[in-house]
Design brief:
Rossmann fold; ATP hydrolysis activity; alpha/beta; 612 residues; 19 helices; ABC-type oligopeptide transporter activity; 4-stranded antiparallel beta sheet; 6-stranded mixed beta sheet; 62% helix; 10 strands; 2 domains
């Protein structure tokens, strides 16, 4: 008989706050910038070409006022003297610059759009792949609605930045640099006035960034809350309707929706403050330059064409200010979203892939392998200790039923064996090999779990069975279904094995879904099979059908059966009774049932419930 004793008192939850209690996961320092750089690194050449195209386009645009100045100061006097050449040259030059800027703008938008879509494709793929690699513990604490928000709403914020914001930023920076240099070249005094006006604009931009960063962080969190509530309600629509939760859910959703509305309103208000302030600075600077320039023209120290060009340039200098606001708007929204995505991608899998994989020893004959829990202790990250120091040996080919009250540690034992979690201390061995030393494909081929709720994916019955072995032929799929006893009901479906079971297998009954899950497990041909309360949700006919299937699928394999109904124990060679993470009884069911221990009491209570 295998038994364990408590060597440590249960631990209490840690004092530090759980990051999963937040609406987002904090990104490590520098993670956001590193993520953006990694996304763009594969497209450096195309980004450089796009920047060069935009630079030439900006040069073509900024040549216009210089042509106007030349026409006023040189072309008009020449025209009066009968020489039309300068005016015609200016007109043709202006048209050429306009045509060139249009063509280059088209080329830039087309190239940038391709980079934009490739970056977003890469980012969505990263989120999806990374989320699949994260541990069960992560997914139990981080809702699917928040994952959906990261891969949709937050990625969309980045799309707006890449498709519109970056062009505005590059355009504004090039405009500022080129116009400032041209104004200083045209007239040092005018250039100095223009440069001085940048100071209040810089302070205005810094204020906007500081306030908008907070607002957009709140907005991203608010929309995630809306998505989480919506997804949770739709996934639980049956209990919602059964317990009349509609009004309560509507009230809660309305509060979340209003929170999102307020955060959107705050973002628009910050944008409005910035636009009003920037236009006030711009108009004041242009008005001041016009007055001072007119005075200088009147006294003869400034040419009229230079003043006209300077005013045009100043208007062009301040026109992009609104566009800069649009960039900052996109940037702050994208920065908040990218920080949340970076926080998600920074999460490390709780069960990391081994860097030095071992191979399982070759076996002949029956597929079963020996399972050993060697000095195992386990505690959840945010809770108390579930399994104290724990030792257990299951010989190859033995079927072990694990029974006990809720919270006794049965499912935790199963999750450790399936390596959904790693032990806090100790080792779980499969034929002497630590599960942590096996590659994920080898582990999943060797150990398969069938849960209480047999999850079927949208698709055909055959496709769901083939999940156990994707390269299986149709004949092998049907053979597995026949062995389990599922073939008869499958062939009676509208399209037989090609029938689409729809969302979560809702087209067939719970018992039929469980039979499909057993066929999937049989086709996978694992060495160890874990049945986690696989019959607890079934009616009596469904339970009998599944128990008959269990006789087939368990043959020759090592099996751990987490039993809620004691009728399931009948297939077991050995029973473990667990209490508070300890094995308090261990032996053949026929021996334990005749004694006066825990299992005998559970069995009497179960038998009396059947009689009643």
């Amino acid at each position: 008989m295998t038994d364990t004793t408590l060597t440590k008192p249960p631990t209490t939850a840690p004092d530090e706050p759980d990051p999963f209690d937040r609406d987002d996961l904090p990104a490590p320092p520098g993670a956001t910038g590193a993520l953006l750089r990694s996304l763009l690194s594969a497209h450096r050449a195309r980004v450089a070409v796009a920047a060069l195209v935009l630079l030439v386009k900006e040069a073509a645009v900024q040549a216009g006022p210089l042509l106007v100045a030349y026409a006023i100061d040189r072309g008009v006097p020449a025209f009066r003297a009968g020489d039309h050449g300068p005016v015609v040259a200016v007109a043709l030059g202006y048209l050429l610059c306009a045509a060139l800027s249009g063509l280059l703008q088209y080329a830039f938008v087309r190239g940038a759009a391709r980079v934009n879509q490739d970056v977003l494709l890469d980012l969505r793929g990263r989120i999806f792949r990374h989320a699949q690699l994260l541990s069960v513990d992560f997914h139990e604490r981080y809702t699917s609605g928040r994952l959906i928000s990261r891969s949709t709403t937050d990625v969309e914020s980045l799309r707006e930045l890449l498709s519109e914001g970056l062009q505005e930023l590059i355009g504004v920076v090039l405009s500022f640099l080129s116009i400032t240099l041209v104004l200083l070249w045209l007239d040092l005094g005018i250039g100095a006035v223009a440069t001085a006006s940048f100071v209040p604009l810089y302070l205005l931009v810094q204020l906007y960034r500081r306030r908008a960063g907070r607002v957009y962080g709140e907005r991203s969190t608010a929309i995630a809350g809306v998505i989480v509530k919506f997804a949770e309600t739709m996934n639980g629509i049956r209990p919602v309707r059964a317990f009349r939760r509609e009004k309560t859910n509507d009230t809660e959703f309305s509060a979340l929706n209003h929170r999102h509305e307020r955060s959107n309103g705050d973002a628009l208000l910050e944008m409005a403050r910035y636009v009003v302030g920037s236009r006030l600075v711009a108009n004041t600077a242009v008005a001041g330059m016009c007055l001072w320039g007119a005075y200088r023209v009147a006294e003869g120290s400034l040419e009229l064409g230079v003043l006209a060009a300077a005013v045009l340039y100043m208007r062009r200098l301040y026109d992009p200010i609104d566009r800069l606001g649009m960039f900052l708007n996109s940037y702050e929204s994208a920065a908040a979203s990218l920080a949340k995505i970076a926080g998600l991608l920074a999460q490390e899998p709780g069960v990391p892939e081994t860097t030095a994989p071992h191979e399982l020893p070759h076996r002949t004959g029956a597929p079963g392998r020996e399972v050993v829990f060697d000095n195992v202790r386990f505690a959840y990250r945010t809770g108390g200790e579930v399994l104290p120091t724990f030792d257990l040996k299951i010989p190859a080919g033995q079927t072990v039923a694990v029974v006990g009250a809720t919270g006794a540690g049965k499912s935790t034992l199963a999750k450790l064996l399936a390596r959904f979690y790693d032990p806090t201390e100790g080792r779980v061995l499969l034929d002497g090999t630590d599960l942590r030393d096996l590659t994920t494909p080898d582990l999943r081929r060797g150990i398969v779990m069938v849960t209480q709720e047999a999850f079927l994916f949208s698709g055909t019955v055959a496709e769901n069975i083939a999940i156990g072995r994707p390269d299986a032929t149709r004949a092998e799929i049907e053979e597995a279904a026949k062995a389990i006893g599922a073939h008869d009901f499958i062939k009676d479906l509208p399209d037989g094995y090609d029938t689409d079971v729809r969302k979560r297998g809702g087209r067939i009954s719970a018992g039929q879904r469980q039979l499909v899950a057993f066929a999937r497990a049989l086709l996978a041909n694992p060495a160890v099979l874990i049945l986690d309360e696989a019959t607890s949700s079934l009616d009596v006919p469904g339970e009998r059908a599944v128990q008959q299937a269990m006789d087939t699928v368990l043959k020759g394999r090592t099996a751990v059966v987490i039993a809620h109904r004691l009728s399931t124990v009948e297939v077991a060679d050995r029973v473990l009774v667990m209490e508070s993470g300890r094995i308090v009884e261990d032996g053949p069911p026929s021996t334990l049932v005749t004694g006066d221990g825990h299992y005998a009491g559970l069995h009497r209570a179960w038998r009396d419930s059947l009689v009643g």
